[in-house]
Amino acid sequence: MRKFNKMKLILSALILTSTVLVGCGQGTGTNQEVTATNNTQITEVEKVEQEEYEAFEIENNEQMLAFTEAPKRAVTLNQHVTEVMLALGLEEFMVGTAYLDDAVLPEYKEAYESISVLSDQYPSQEVFLAEEPDFAYAGWASAFREDNIGTVEQLKEFGINAYLHESSSKVGPTIDDIYSDIRNIARIFNVEERGVQLIASMEEELSEIQKNIPEVTEKKRVFVFDSGDTAPFTVAQNFLNSLITLAGADNIFSDIEKNWAEVSWEEVVDRDPEVIIIVDYGETTAEEKKETLLRHPALEDVTAIKNEDFIIIPLSAAAEGVRAPFALEILVNGLYK
Question: Are 74 and 135 in contact (CB under 8 A)?
């Protein structure tokens, strides 16, 4: 992606103006020490502690969370929120992470590898609590179930604030909702200026990509295929729908008032998509999904199938996170190739 390195450089410069950090990957703890030129040892955590912290409360998905200081032992659950933390330069505040859909962005790889991976998917509550966390940050509501790390209410009893990414849990999220989550996390960790810089970088890149969208008289009809044999599971009004709109196309199931929906193959045929977006994740590869669609007898007269017009997008890019510019670029390149 063209400008994520720029984003990282901006944030790195912001961090380095007041302290010199050790290279990532030299330990997994949150108290890595660095030696400044005046021989004073200070960590990024200690630096934030030294800055004035204004206690505040925030409403998050109908839950009130109170903060009197920045969390020091955070655990992230789901890739897109892990990358929000890394994009904000908060790896020293993270004692664990879980549930990647694919590899983290290359510019975050070194920082990510300095953090303990607790589980390939959601860790058990026992594994989670063993890290003595004071903050849990999840991308999907499924993380905060009793059979995973526990409910938000249960975690409060352990003295752990649990934040659920709001842009991933509301119907019809926009890019502004992602920015709101970034601002919230930056405020919680007392690094608000970094949040401002990250959002500005994302806005700049999205604006540059949108300049490459040609004017069209008719928007292309798009069907998103996530999974499903007897009935397809597709995008209704989640963030990928917003990205399709930004890219100048129409999602054929945007009229369904939920984020994801199971529809019928008959409905897909009736709405005749010109382009099919395949969401790439899990054990079934994107190519296998593509072959399933091409061989499906009910779809043989669908325009996208006849023209074999497919766009493949990784789930990590389709989620509500810092990859929004990357995802938009994939869609624009695929729609107007």
Answer: yes
Cα(98)–Cα(78) distance, integer angstroms:
6
CB atoms within 10 A of CB 35: 11
Give yes or no: residues 138 and 248 share one domain. Answer: no
Question: Which residues fall within 8 angstroms of residue 150, CB to CB, at 6 or more apart?
Answer: 125, 128, 144, 158
CA atoms of 113 and 101, how far apart (whole Å): 16
Q: What is the pLDDT of residue 13?
A: 46
Tokens of 154: 């249960």
Closest CA to 234 of 248, 253, 220, 219: 253
Give the pLDDT of residue 71: 98
- Provide CB contacts within 8 A for 251, sequence distance 6+: 222, 223, 224, 235, 236, 240, 241, 244, 245
Q: What is the mean pLDDT of each run of 10 residues along the chain (337 residues)?
A: 47 44 41 43 60 92 95 97 98 97 94 97 98 98 96 96 96 96 98 98 97 92 96 96 97 96 98 98 94 96 98 95 97 95
Are 171 and 23 in a shared domain?
yes
Q: What are phi and psi of 235, to 5 degrees?
A: -85, 130
- Angle of CA points 321, 323, 324, to nearest 5°: 80
Q: Look at residue 44 in the predicted model and tell me its pLDDT.
A: 63
Domain limits at 234?
Answer: 221-335
- The CATH number assigned to the domain holding 11 equals 3.40.50.1980
Q: Please report which helix (H) or strand (E) contains residue 161, including its range.
A: strand 161-164
Task: Give residue 154's pLDDT.
Answer: 96
Q: What is the pLDDT of residue 88?
A: 98
Do both 191 and 287 map to the same domain? no
By CB atoms closer than 10 A (0-12, 13-18, 19+), residue 36 is exposed
Q: Which of 2, 155, 9 lies closest to 75 in space, CA to CA?
A: 155
- Shared domain check, 264 and 190: no
Helix, strand or coil for residue 242? Answer: helix
Give domain status of residue 216, yes or no: no
Whole-prediction pTM? 0.84
Burial 178-208 (b: 16+ CB within 10 A, else e): bbebbebbbbbbbbeebbebbbebbeebbee
Residue 146 lies in a domain: yes
